[in-house]
Specification:
Number of strands: 23
Distance between the termini: 146 Å
Strand content: 35-45%
Shape: elongated
Radius of gyration: 40 Å
Structural class: mainly beta
Number of helices: 1
Helix content: under 10%
Order of helices and strands: EEEEEEEEEEEEEEEEEEEEEEEH
Length: 294
C-alpha cells in the first residue's frame, strides 16, 4: 500500500491510496478494498481510494489504511507512511493604478496602486507590498506615488507583491509619464466665407502643455459630412486652407485639428462653417450714337 503522489502535495492536490497484490485463495471470491484515511494520526472515516484538500490543509500529515474484503471477511489491514501537505503560493490579481487615464501618468499627480490577493490555504492571509519602479530602479515602496516630470516620456511601473510568509506572487501595472496638450479653439477666416474666398481654419486659441512641450497641429477637413479629398494649401499650418476653387455655395466644411506634443495626441477640436454663393453682377454697356439721332 502506498500514497500517490507521496510528496509535493498542497491544498489543491488529490492524493490516492494505491493497493497492489490483493488476492484470495478461494478462486470464486472477488476481493474489494476498504479504505480509511488519517489526518495527523486521527482517522477520519472516509472510505475512498483518494481524497482532496477538502480533508487536509497546509501543514497536515496524511496517511491511508487499506484492507481487503472477499464478501465474507476482511483480511489484514495495511497502512501507508504519511506525507505532509506543503504551502501553496498566494495569487495576485487586479493590479491597477487609480486615476490613471488611458495609460498616462501626469507629472505632479499622486497615484495609488492597488491589487487583490488570495490564497487557497485557508489558514493564510497574504499581505500585499508595493514598489514603484523605473526599469529596475525602485522609486518608492508605498502604494501611493507622486510622479516626477523627470521621467516624462518614460514608463513607470507599480509592482504589487503578495506574500503568505513562505511564498510570493507579483503583478504589475504601468503608465507613460506625460501631460497632454490642451484642446485648441478654432475659427474661420473669413468668418462668413463665400465661394470666392479661400477658406482658412485658424487657431483662435492654441493648445498649452504643462510640460512646456512644443506642439504640432494636424488638420483634417470634411466636406458635407464626408472626408474632403480635394487640395489644400498653407496659411500658417500645413493643410489649414482650402482654396476657393474647391468650394461651392451651400457646401458645409468641417475643420478638425489635433494637437501633438511629440509624445501623444491631445483631444481633437472641431468647427464647421457653411459656404454662401458669391454674387456675380454682369453689366452690359451699349454705345449710343448721338450724332445719328440729330
Amino acid at each position: 500500500v502506498k500514497l500517490s503522489p507521496s510528496s509535493g502535495l498542497t491544498e489543491s492536490s488529490t492524493v490516492g491510496c494505491l493497493v497492489s497484490g490483493a488476492s484470495d485463495a478461494d478462486p470464486t471470491d472477488k476481493v474489494s478494498i476498504t479504505y480509511d484515511w488519517a489526518i495527523n494520526g486521527k482517522r477520519i472515516g472516509v472510505n475512498a481510494s483518494s481524497i482532496t484538500g477538502a480533508y487536509f490543509n497546509k501543514g497536515d500529515f496524511v496517511g491511508c489504511y487499506a484492507k481487503p474484503y472477499d464478501g465474507i471477511e476482511f483480511g489484514s489491514e495495511l497502512a501507508t507512511g504519511t506525507t505532509s501537505i506543503g504551502n501553496t503560493a498566494p495569487s495576485i490579481s487586479k493590479v491597477s493604478i487609480s486615476g490613471m487615464a488611458k495609460g498616462r501618468l501626469v507629472p505632479g499627480v499622486t497615484y495609488t496602486c492597488s491589487a487583490s490577493a488570495s490564497d487557497i490555504d485557508p489558514t493564510d492571509s497574504p499581505k500585499v507590498a508595493y514598489a514603484w519602479k523605473y526599469g529596475s530602479s525602485v522609486l518608492s515602496t508605498s502604494a501611493t506615488h507622486t510622479v516626477s516630470a523627470k521621467y516624462r516620456g518614460l514608463s513607470l511601473t507599480c509592482e504589487a507583491t503578495a506574500s503568505d510568509g513562505s511564498a510570493t506572487a507579483s503583478g504589475t501595472a504601468s503608465g507613460v509619464v506625460n501631460s497632454l496638450p490642451s484642446t485648441p479653439r478654432l475659427a474661420f477666416t473669413p468668418s462668413a466665407p463665400k465661394s470666392s474666398d479661400d477658406l482658412v481654419c485658424t487657431l483662435s486659441s492654441g493648445s498649452t502643455d504643462a510640460d512646456k512641450d512644443a506642439i504640432a497641429y494636424s488638420f483634417v477637413w470634411y466636406q458635407n459630412g464626408s472626408r474632403y479629398a480635394g487640395g489644400t494649401s498653407t496659411k500658417t499650418y500645413a493643410g489649414d486652407t482650402i482654396p476657393s476653387k474647391y468650394t461651392l455655395g451651400s457646401d458645409k466644411f468641417e475643420c478638425r485639428v489635433t494637437p501633438n506634443d511629440s509624445y501623444e495626441n491631445g483631444t481633437t477640436a472641431s468647427a464647421t462653417v457653411s459656404i454662401t454663393e458669391s454674387c456675380v453682377v454682369t453689366m452690359t454697356f451699349e454705345q449710343y450714337d448721338t450724332a445719328k439721332k440729330a
